[in-house]
Amino acid sequence: MTASSEKTYTAWSRLLRVLKDLLANPSSGFGLVVIAILLVTALVAPWIAPYEPNMINLAKALQPPSATHLFGTDELGRDVLSRIIHGSRISLTIITIVSVIVGPLGLLVGTTAGYFGGWYDTVMMRITDIFLSFPSLILSLAFVAALGASLENAIIAIGLTAWPPIARLARAETLTFRNADYISASRMQGASKLRIIIKSIMPMCLPSVLVRVTLSMATVILTAAGLGFLGLGAQPPLPEWGAMIATGRRYMLDNWWLVAFPGGAILLVSLAFNLLGDGLRDALDPKQGH
Q: Cα-Cα-Cα-Cα dihedral of 164, 160, 220, 117, to 10°?
């Protein structure tokens, strides 16, 4: 077996071991199953949704849950279940793009600040502290107000506010690794600082960052829903869960399903990411023998 194939085999073995640990834990297994359902639902939404999400039928407005409309209809006669199913696509898009933004950005800022130290570390951490001093929703509101209300700008705003905790974590991890023997050996062999950070430090920080990113996704979902609720995220007629709650709140006293079902979807997905993050932390903990 070549070195490359052996490394690939080791990576797959570790991945399968982590997956087995996640499924063995009831809470993280539940979270993993819910997120898997979210992924599948988003991918096949056009085929499993019973109706078009934006199909208006005023004759069927505000109908309660029934065999015809399992989650009822909204004020325009649109099927709530179909809109929630299609809304999973928006939620998955937000989660994916924000993860791609905050994971690498937080990892880069944290590892470089921790490794270089000095004035660069001071400046980057003060910027991080400024971001951390504001609630994520408030800061996202400020960015969206500056950029304009839209789903794209909401995603950018959430991405710009979600990286500081990851950067803090990556910096703390880097401070524990930068004087390790294998780092010193790399320096003596003439490896550049950038190569040391990318090849030696970032891989060591990756498990903790992955856990942090997973846990952050619960906050991302809530922030996106908050922006949608305030009319600053996805714009009508997009079936975004927070926007659905905002529309349904005017009718909620007599038509509870308009807020209960999208609110339940937000709660379930947020809980799933929290449970999965906790399970990942246990599965990737070196003290557990992995």
A: -10
Instruction: Name the DSSP letter for residue 153.
Output: H
SS3 73: strand
Cα gap 7→24, rounded to integer Å: 26
Q: Tell me the two tokens of residue 101.
A: 């933004």
**175-228 residue pLDDT tens:** 988 878 888 888 888 888 888 888 888 988 888 898 899 999 999 999 999 999
Task: Show the domains of the chain with their CATH numbers.
Answer: 36-53+69-288 (1.10.3720.10)
Q: Token pair for residue 116?
A: 């270089």
State how far the alpha carbon of 202 is from the alpha carbons of 114, 173, 214, 286, in Å: 11, 9, 17, 17
Mean pLDDT of 12-32: 80
pTM above 0.70, yes or no: yes
Using DSSP, state whether 270 is helix, strand or coil: helix
Which residue did the predictor score with more confidence, 126 or 177?
A: 126
Would you tell me how many other CB atoms lie within 10 Å of the CB of residue 238?
19
Neighbours of 92 (CB within 10 A): 18
